[in-house]
Amino acid sequence: MRNSKIVGVGKYIPERVVTNFELEKMMDTSDAWIRERTGIVERHWAKEGEETNSWMGAQAAKAALDMAGMTPRDIDFIVYATLSPEFYFPGSGCPMQVHLGIPGIGAMDVRNQCTGFVYALAAADQFIKTGMYNNVLVVGSEVQNSGLNLSTEGRDVAVIFGDGAGAAVLTATDEKNKGILSSHLHADGNYAKELWVEKPGSITYPVVDKTHVDEGRIYPYMNGRFVFKHAVTKFPEVIYEALNANNYKAEDLDLVIPHQANERITEAVQMRLQIPKEKVFSNIHKYGNTTAASIPIAITEAMEEGLIKDNSLVCLAAFGSGFTWASSLIRW
Ligand code: UT7
């Protein structure tokens, strides 16, 4: 069976920088608290009406296509991961296709929050492995700032999230032991309400009303400590699952790219794997948690920094709402 490999990556970061100090003016928080608990120094916020979810996705996609030496017309299929689509439906894959000028090809949205990009990459990989498509565009994009409760009540979540987009172009290869070696996808819906946005949702008629808005049920809720505890367990577990499936050990890894949820989670993962700090990528200080966009943005920056070379063994791993968690082991 043939494999799929990443031949281009790209990112789009919104222009507006929002520092911790700026957040201090909106809610009862402090730069010291945010840095100490999360490692975040600043994040970027998309501009209303201009930097939309699908438009940012298209900019990241164009950069990824440039690196791949391809044009949008070379793409056979789109897999688009986001928790913040511009509409309740359709998902953002369809409007992004219009920005890229390639109507007609299939576009599938993936709703797996922080784990979305790893799920999307796994789906794209399978489409290529089975021979259905040759070139698949995988995008993760988020506009979080329009959905945050920026009062003190919402501070635990509001200080963490940021906006941005990342993309990867996946193409077929006949090279054995190259590209995506395996993907490992998990979910446990028992914990859906520990990290969620309840409204709008079809369980009530109508999907959202003034009471929901007044009660703040339209904002993300996170049981932070509970999520943290699960994350520090599931990240190493799913990375070891990928290593074991391919007969590798942690010391064989050239780089781990975890979803950027919290610098303390990343440090815990590094300690559990017992690998040097430089082998676990981190850029959360600049962007906060950009959910489905964090891994493709991180891959792009790791490549810019020369941390991923031909033949590098790279593990992507994520944990988030659902709960969902997943990994992907890649021989570059
Ligand atoms: O993307 C994947 C899913 N997300 C995650 O993986 C995130 C996982 N969770 C976390 O990263 C951490 O739990 C947080 C960063 C969200 C919170 O850190 P924590 O060390 O778990 O703090 P905490 O929730 O236990 O809160 C400690 C204190 C509380 O005050 P009291 O009760 O001790 O008086 C909070 O009210 O810090 C308070 N607090 C804040 N203070 C200043 C909560 N948020 C803030 C804030 N600024 N933004």
Give a nutshell description of this structure:
With 332 residues, the chain is α/β, with parallel strands linked by helices.
List the helices and strands and how they pair.
Layout (H helix, E strand, L loop, with lengths): L2 E10 L3 E4 H5 L6 H8 L3 E4 L7 H16 L8 E5 L11 H8 L5 E5 L5 H14 L5 E8 L12 H4 L5 E10 L5 E9 L7 E2 L13 H5 L6 E2 L1 H22 L9 E4 L4 H11 L10 H4 L6 H11 L8 E8 L3 E8 L1
Parallel strand pairs: 4-5, 4-6, 11-12
Antiparallel strand pairs: 1-7, 2-3, 6-7, 8-13, 9-10, 12-13
The structure holds oxa(dethia)-CoA (UT7).
Oxa(dethia)-CoA binds next to helix 2, helix 6, helix 8 and strand 12.
Subunit structure: Homodimer.
EC number: 2.3.1.180
Catalytic activity: malonyl-[ACP] + acetyl-CoA + H(+) = 3-oxobutanoyl-[ACP] + CO2 + CoA
Would you write up a description of this structure?
Helix 8 (224-245) runs parallel beside helix 9 (263-273). The chain has 11 helices and 13 strands. It has 332 residues and is an alpha/beta fold. The mean pLDDT is 97. The protein folds into 2 domains: 3-173, Peroxisomal Thiolase, Chain A, domain 1 (3-Layer(aba) Sandwich); 179-331, 3-Layer(aba) Sandwich (Peroxisomal Thiolase, Chain A, domain 1), CATH 3.40.47. The protein binds oxa(dethia)-CoA.
Which features would summarize this protein structure in a list?
332 residues, 11 helices, lipid metabolism, single chain, transferase, globular, 4-stranded mixed β-sheet, 13 strands, Peroxisomal Thiolase, Chain A, domain 1
Structural class: alpha/beta
Estimate the mean pLDDT confidence.
97
Main sheet, how many strands, which sense, barrel? Answer: 5 strands, mixed
Instruction: Specify the helix fraction band.
Output: 25-40%
Q: Can you tell me the CATH class of the largest domain?
A: Alpha Beta
User: How many E-type strands?
Assistant: 13
CATH architecture of the largest domain: 3-Layer(aba) Sandwich
From the alpha carbons, calculate the radius of gyration and give it in angstroms: 19 Å
* CATH topology-level name of the largest domain: Peroxisomal Thiolase, Chain A, domain 1
How far from one another are the termini?
A: 18 Å
- The CATH homologous superfamily of the largest domain is called Thiolase/Chalcone synthase
Number of helices: 11
What's the structural domain tally? 2
Structure ligands:
oxa(dethia)-CoA
**Parts with pLDDT < 50 across at least 5 consecutive residues:** none
